[in-house]
Fold each of these.
Amino acid sequence: METAANELWQVLQNYYHSFIRLLPRLGLAIFVFLITLFIASQLRRWLRMRILQQTKDSLLTGFLAQLGYWIILLFGSVMALGFIGLDDVVTKILAGAGLSAFILGFALKDIGENFLAGILLAFKRPFRIGDRVETNGINGRVIGLNLRETIIKTLDGKDVYMPNGLILKTPLINYTMDGYLRLEFTIGLDYEDDLAKAIDIILTAVSSVKGVINEPPRIPEVSISELTNSSVNMKVYCWINSYDPDVSAQTVRTTAIRNAIEALAKAGYYLPADIIEIKNYQGREIATGDPNKQASS
C-alpha cells in the first residue's frame, strides 16, 4: 500500500514539475492567443468600414469581415499550440478535421448546403437588406442574412427564417432591386360612359397622391384590361420609390383608389360593382344605394 502511494506521489510530482517547466510557454501561448483575438476583432471592424465605403453592401461586408476574423483567429490558435509544443497535436487535429468534415458532409448535408448557399448569396447578392422579395410563397422584406438562413419579415409582421439552400434553388422575385415598385388596381366603368374622359379623371386623381412618381418613364397609366358582361374594367398603374421611408405602398394604393373613385363619382360616372357605400376621407357619403348599382375598384 505504501509503495503504491509513493508511486502515485512520484507521478504527481513529475506532472507538477512538467507543469512548472511548461508554465512560461503556456503563459506565452495565452498571451499570443489574446493578442490574436484582439487583432482579429480589430481587423473585422476595419474590414467592415473599408468594404462598406467601397460597396455599400452589408451582406458581402459582413461575410468578408467574419471570414477575415476566423482566419486570423485560426492562425493565432495554431501559433499558441505551437508555443506549448503541441505541433503534432495540431497536425493530427487538422488531419482529423479533414476526415471529420468528409464524414459530417454526408450526415449534415442540409446544413452544409445552407452554409455554402449563404456564401454564394453573399457574393451573388440577389437582394439587399431592406429589399422586398417573394420566394417559396413568402412575401416580405429581408432583415438579415447569415451563413445558414435568410430572415424575412412578412407584411403582417412575422419573421420567417428561410434556409439559404431553399432560396438558392427556387425562383426569387425582388420587387425593390432598382428602388421602384409598381402598384396597380382595377376600376369598372359602364359601357355607355365616356372612357377617354374617365381615363383623364383617373390619371389626374392618381397623380395627385403623395408618393406617386410623375416623371417619365414611370408615370401613372390607365388601360382597358377586360370587357365583362356589366362593365369595362380599367387597369390603373402607378409607381413609388420603395427606398423612401415616408412612402407606404399600401397607403399610396389605398389613397389612389379612393381618390379615383371619388373623382369619378363627382363627375357623374356610374361604377358597376357590389359595394353598398363608399365614403371619402371626411366621411362624406359619395355613393349609396342598391348593391347592384354601386361602385368598387
Amino acid sequence: MDNLLDFTNKTALITGAASGFGKSLAQELAKRGANLVLADFNDAGLSQTVSETEALGANVVALVGDIADEKHAEQLVASAVETFGRLDIAVNNAGIAPALGPLTQIDADTLGRQLDVNTKGVAYGLKYQLRVMSSQKDGAILNVSSMAGLGGTPMGSSYGAAKHAVIGLTKTAAVECGSMNVRVNAICPFFTSTPMVDNPVMNPNNNIEEVNKNLARGCPMKRIARVEEIVNVMVMMLSPANSYMNGIAVPIDGGMSAM
C-alpha cells in the first residue's frame, strides 16, 4: 500500500461514528489497517458501524455516550490506550444541527446545546487526546468544523458560533502542541448529504432534492457535497505521510470560498 494511504496498526478514535462522515471515515481507515475506537450516542447505528468495520478486518472498540460529557471523552481515550497501547489519530466529528431562526430569536436551550456538543465536545476531546499524544511525541487530530465556522451563518447563529469556536480550539492546540509532534487541523465542509442535513430540522417539508438544490444555489459547482468527497480529504489530512500540516482550517466547499 502507498505510504500516503497506509494506516496499518494506527489507532484512530472517531466520534459521531454511527453515520455520516464518522461512519464513512471509520470504514476507510479500517480498509487501510487502522485499529478503531468509535463513539456515538446512537447505540444501534454505532453497532452497525462496528459490524461493518470488523468485517473489513479492523480491531474495534466502541463506547456509547454523549460527547458533551467530559467523562465520556476521558473514557474514550483511556479505552484506546488500554486496548491498543497508544492513540495515533483522533477525529472530533460528532455534532448536531440547530433549529433554524434569526439571531434576534436565539434561545438559551438552543445555544447551550450547540455549545455543549459542537464546542465543548471538541474541547473535552482535545483535553485528553492531547495529553496522550504529547507524551508519545506523536499524533494527529482532525476537528470537524464547517463553512459556518469561517463566515456568517444566517438563520443558524448558534451553530456558526459553535463551529467558529472549533477553529479557535484547533489553532490554539496546534500552537501549544506542535513542538511535541502533534498536528491539529480542522476541516470545514460545505453542505453535504448526511443525516444531519437530510433531517426534519433542515428539511421540514421532506423534499430532500429541492432543499439540496436551494442549499447549493450559491455554490460554483451547483451541488452540495457527497460524503465520500469530504471523507477522502479527511483521510489525506490524517495521513501519516502528511507530517507538516498543522493549525489549518481547510474549506471543502465546491468553490464557495473563492467567491
